[in-house]
Amino acid sequence: MGNKRAQTSPNPQSPAAPPPAYADSIDITAAFASLSLSGEPRDPTADSCLAHLKLLAAFHALKEDIGYTDGLWGIWDDQACHDGKQDGKIHEKAKTPDKDDNNGPATGNPAAELLSKSREKRWAVFVARAADRYEAWCKAIMQPFEPLTEAHMREPLSTKYEGFPTRGRARQWSAVELPPLDVLMVWHAHMLNPRAFLEDMMRCGAQEYWMTGMPWNLVNAAIDSNFNYTVSDDAKARWMGLTGCQWSNTDDSMFKELSCPACSERLQLKWSTSGFDENGSPRNITDAAQLVGSGYGDGEFSHKCHRCNITINKELLSTAKFVRDTKSLLHRSWPLPGTILDPATGGPELEPANYDSDRTYPNRLVKKGARAEILELIRPGGSDGVPPTMDGVRAVLERTMADTTRHYEATGQRRTPYASRPFVRRMMRAYWQNFSPFAIDLVGAVTRQSIFTAKMAQLDWLHSPAARETMERLIKKYGRFFAIMAQCPYNVAVPTLDVDLAWHTHQLSPSAYYAFSMRLTKKFVDHDDKIDESKLSTAFAWTSRTYQLKYGEVYSECTCWYCESVRASHINPIGKMLGISRNDQISETFHTSGRAKLCPPDNSAHISAHNAVRTVGGDDRRGRLLQHMQARHDRMLEASYAKATKRAQQKGRQLPPRQEYYTHWGYSYFMYSPYVYPTYFSPEIYCGWDDSTVHAGQGEYANCCQGSCGSAAGGGCATAGSVCGSTDFGSGDSGGGSSSGGYGSSSGGGCGSSGGCGGGGGGD
């Protein structure tokens, strides 16, 4: 093509050259066709970010394939639309009417909406099975390792504890060791919860898997340009021999084998009952409630043991996990989760030789004070078949802490030390709404990560001619983001989608990320995957303002109404009137430079909100405070939107409409704002609990034990990060960190500003 153009006569009378042939068009796979990758853990590079995008594209393609596989798990499209056909066609693209609140759309086309939920249900069961297969893989590959004990926590520089994050060797992976794509997806989500992943690897002694992380060279080689994941027959045979599972998730049995927690009877449980009626016959699905189901991978799992008559459900399984860990503590000296990492630094902190630390207080409380009652919680025939729950565990711990005699026998102190109280909550957090052997519920983690995956698929940077330049730019921006966290350790920093891609990529090399984070911030910065949506928005506004002032550039390169409102909140009206507002100048330069035209409102890298949840307050003081804070945030956002609208009109521009629609399994849903929890999800149909909502009222399920509240670093009553601190939209002070280190916070808690960060109001 280039030579032909060089030989063409410049004579304007010559006939126009024909358009380029299709075969001569740009290769849209060129950006990721040949990546330079290593199997060693490293800081993110353009190549590793592109490899990560390839992996996310493979996850997204897998999700689409599963959701659209008609008949999978007995769920058929024509069953869901039995009464919803019009002229023989299913009208899937009908949009729902606008709605003023953010609690979800009003129903526009019931048949199409039900079909969408049926497809989501297929994926929900698939994810539950994937998490179970990941657990089987972990048990198999980690069997040779020596688990962490309380004695290891007192050994200086022990590679089992103090030296675990930094003093090991990376594993040399081979292609034959790669797991199936669904298991890779769960492992990916696990690593994106850095502190939880570190604690889990430490507890089972799997140092080499921690040191290595994602083997990018092998994973990238297994994914082709169409995002198909392919491995050798030897890899498939090895997997099946190692785990006893089929290579393909959908080829595994439709029954889950489980031992009854009360009598140990081996039971065969259906994975899902959604597609069948009580007689086991296929049924027409006329209501979304029928998709919930009572199978092991369903939303309301319930099965009565035919031997001891106890009802097995997810609450019982969580309690059984706690009882099992208590036995391991008593007989093997394996510490409980939540007692291993120092909440202030996020890393292991050597136990003193001559006294007991506050962090390990729950181990002593359970081992010497509450063990008898805990071990009696689950027994055949107990409580007339009514299963115990974690509420019962909470009650046992509350009684032990309140009984001065028992407490003295367990800890040598009459009352619970104030500094020890938050660690009871930290320990309990591994069991509330989580019956997996890991520190977090991985089904929920995968579900939240799939939101980010869908955003990456929509942005489609992989097929951009400027893909590599985009990766290099976002890595630079990620470095700036981390510098802000280092400078402002008591504020919560929230990433944009491009920053979050680099951040996620870094976390997939855990040991490299640990070293980087410790070097810059002196802490292992967590990536909290649950944060209240209003607080997320408030913290994002603070991050945006801080970034603009520090680097002289807009933070969120997006022109949607929300991002324009956030930028407008940074502008001091007096400074603008006097022509000295730096934030006004930065925002205006973004538009006048032409950069804004390259950032459409419906397809740009604005706030990354895959971890947003709704916090529901109770009737107590804490709940009322939360409601007040949420209402205040909404008022501030409305004021900023009005400000942005007026500013745009003065500049001859028009803000895009606030009505946004997101397509989910072929059905369009209304979304109020990009920072809210996605209303199109149906958490009730997933295995486990409702991950979209957190209850903040005192005494609510999954909240802390009475007497365990405190304000030590890392603490928080269920949603401490949501109810601690300011909610001024766009202010310089975003408020406290979350209980696990904060979403982009290098401190475990505290409300305030430090290192020159913050400042009052939203002005310059």
In short:
This protein is mainly alpha-helical and 764 residues long. It contains 25 helices and 9 strands. It has helices at residues 2-7, 30-33, 46-67, 77-80, 110-141, 181-191, 194-204, 207-212, 216-222, 233-243, 314-332, 361-375, 390-402, 404-411, 421-428, 442-459, 467-487, 497-507, 510-521, 533-551, 561-569, 573-577, 582-592, 621-650, 720-723, and strands at 255-259, 266-270, 302-304, 311-313, 531-532, 612-616, 660-664, 667-671, 693-695.
How does this structure look, described?
By secondary structure, the chain is mostly helical. The protein has 3 domains: 48-252, no CATH class; 313-428, no CATH class; 468-656 and 696-723, no CATH class. Helices cover 41% and strands 5% of the residues. The protein contains 25 helices and 9 strands. A hairpin with a 6-residue loop joins strand 3 (302-304) and strand 4. Residues 1-15, 83-107, 574-578, 710-742, 748-756 and 758-763 have low confidence and may be disordered.
> Terminal Cα separation, in Å?
52 Å
Q: Give the strand content.
A: under 5%
Could you describe the largest sheet, including whether it forms a barrel? 3 strands, parallel
Q: Which percent bin holds the helix content?
A: 40-55%
Q: Calculate the mean pLDDT score and round it.
A: 80
Low-confidence stretches: 1-15, 83-107, 574-578, 710-742, 748-756, 758-763
Shape: globular
Domains, number: 3
Structural class: mainly alpha
Strand order of the largest sheet: 5-6-9
Radius of gyration: 27 Å
Count of individual beta strands: 9
The DSSP helix count reads 25
Protein name: Alpha-ketoglutarate-dependent sulfonate dioxygenase
Biased composition (Low complexity): 1-11
Region (Disordered): 1-23, 86-114, 735-764
Pfam family, one: GRDP-like
